[in-house]
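Need a sequence for this fold. Nothing fancy.
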């Protein structure tokens, strides 16, 4: 069973590197979480290295610009690795004629890459960063489009494996929901973000650049996504802290408090055994 902790500094002696999720842990897409930001700043001041590891389909520069817009203090991280960063390698390895499935704001993902963005009928691969309008659409709205891609056996490169993400007080669908539907249809998906290994390899490489050799036993992942943050950390040999007040809170929240028995049952039901859990990162 996961052990409850109330302060990140309780783990100072057991971790040199923190791989921290962004959406749902540091901010909700609209507002930063001040206690989380301060916790990561304090960790850096104690000598720990903080690598933010996010399934954002944007390269790191786009995440930093979002931080500037909503007011996340840049002193709370040492480096940032995004799913978009590691997905660019998948794009370069795939066909050149790509249909871009996602909002216009994510188009920077292909900047500088030798690809041609084409209409669906001319595509030899699909690059998915999300829904065109995640405020009004759901993955099911794309079934017929995806069925057409599957009929032509196109690979779908998913730049954001998250199925949903918090935006303010709502959950909105992400590219991972479309990838799930495509896989359900029998289509081929290619994914490098959490929970898959490439993003963790890149994050640890960045940590080694900053502090030299890194003992994997002294790396700790922090996140609120059971299927991405926690599954990814454990599958890649990294211990994890589960943040309860995130996208899964409806499963075990009792009024304004977390029902620990229900939380532990939720984790067990997902086949996950993080070492620790916290209400919020603090």
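Here you go.
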């Amino acid at each position: 069973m996961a052990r409850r902790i109330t302060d990140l500094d309780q783990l100072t002696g057991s971790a040199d590197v923190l791989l921290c999720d962004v959406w749902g842990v540091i901010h909700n897409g609209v507002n930063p979480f001040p206690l989380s930001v301060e916790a990561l700043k304090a960790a850096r001041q104690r000598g720990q290295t903080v690598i933010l590891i996010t399934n954002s389909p944007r390269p790191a520069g786009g995440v930093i610009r979002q931080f500037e817009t909503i007011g996340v203090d840049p002193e709370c991280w040492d480096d940032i690795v995004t799913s978009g960063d590691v997905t660019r390698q998948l794009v370069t390895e795939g066909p050149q004629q790509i249909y871009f499935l996602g909002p216009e704001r994510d188009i920077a993902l292909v900047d500088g890459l030798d690809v041609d963005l084409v209409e669906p009928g001319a595509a030899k691969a699909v690059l998915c960063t999300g829904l065109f309008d995640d405020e009004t659409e759901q993955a099911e709205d794309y079934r017929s489009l995806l069925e057409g891609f599957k009929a032509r056996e196109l690979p779908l490169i998913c730049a954001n494996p998250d199925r949903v993400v918090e935006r303010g007080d709502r959950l909105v669908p992400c590219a991972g929901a479309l990838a799930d539907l495509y896989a359900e249809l029998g289509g081929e998906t290619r994914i490098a973000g959490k929970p898959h290994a490439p993003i963790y390899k890149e994050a640890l490489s960045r940590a080694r650049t900053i502090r030299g050799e890194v003992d994997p036993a002294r790396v700790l992942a922090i996140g609120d996504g059971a299927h991405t943050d926690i599954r990814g950390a454990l599958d890649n040999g990294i211990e994890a802290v589960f943040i309860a007040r995130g996208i899964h809170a409806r499963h075990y929240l009792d009024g304004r408090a977390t029902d620990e028995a229900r939380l532990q049952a939720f984790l067990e039901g997902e086949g996950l055994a993080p070492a620790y859990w916290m209400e919020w990162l603090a």
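For context: The two ends are 21 Å apart (CA to CA).
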